[in-house]
Amino acid sequence: MLNRKITAALCAGALALTLAGCSGGDAPKQEADKAPDAPAQELEDTVVVYSTHPEKLLTAVADDFTAETGVNVEFVNLKGELADRVRSEKGNPQADVMYGADVSVYLQLADEGCFAVSDPTWAAELPSEFKSDKGLWYGTIKTPVMMFYNTDKLDAADAPADWSDLTDPRFADQIVARDYLSSSMRSAVCNLYYYFSQDGGDEAAVNYLTGLNANVKNYYNSGSMMFKAIGNGEASVGISTMNDIIDNRDNNGMPLAYVNATSGDVIVTDCAAVINDAPHPNAAQAFLEYVGSKDTQVMLANDFNRMPTLDSALAEAPEWMRADVKMLPADWNVIAANQKAWLDEWQNAIYSQDKTGASS
């Protein structure tokens, strides 16, 4: 059934673009009513997806899409190297879809001409902050990045209440976080840089991140290793995505509680886009239609704890996803414009490489 839905959606999109092109976007209704059906868009046999999402999630998405469409999915998980890979291949794209990473990354790459216009049927339901006004990218997952703590080591009164508390000497050697390749950590660093620079400029932001780094005991390139460390009591405080905190608390029995930061939490919107001049353009459009649909968002919410961007999907998601989470102030256009410089500063001048622990 989904294959037929995708084909119909692609046909509708092709028809809409044809009408807009012939009339400057103002085709009279009577002409649209008389227009012949658009030809079916034949799907190529493969779609190549560059992503930052975990392999289990990508496998589930790929298997389901292939079962519904017959299109084979080849995915490559690139973590912090995703944007650079897409940018470097702009003249000769090797992938069809970019799936994952936050809005600031998509804003940068869209300005550089890396994405093709698309118009998935579910986009009409998305709030404006979750999509490009030019049809170049769309948010498919909301991901709060939050502080959390080991409840066996800290009472709520002793836990950090806001991001500024993470630089307090009482948390020295008591914080764990993901390493600099983690897309969620990179987003958090950029949002925190923006937030702390609003009053004191770059100096205040650098001072904050320097103080945070000083209190970090270890950075991990594996989320499971990070949670194992804090679950074992090797540290008392961590920074992670809300879904991973909930998963390790509820499914792995770890003594964890998350913190609703006083100033707000980092809200990362993971997006998807069709790459410009994709080698498999029809399959790429079909994958985008599938991956942001209500049914897929509901599946990811219930099977992988990924918070939907569609309200219709949120209504069928786990109850905790409907919790009121305050957003840390952010201007993602400003963050996008400064992201590379800020991340370079963090990685090269602040981040302690000797604190990075590999997964085993």
Automatic annotation (TrEMBL):
Statement: the UniProt record of this protein carries the keyword Membrane: no
Domain of life: Bacteria
Chain ranges passing through the membrane: none
Keyword entries, A-Z: Signal
Keyword Lipid metabolism attached: no
Signal peptide: 1-20
InterPro entries: Ferric-bd (IPR026045)
Protein name, entry field: Extracellular solute-binding protein
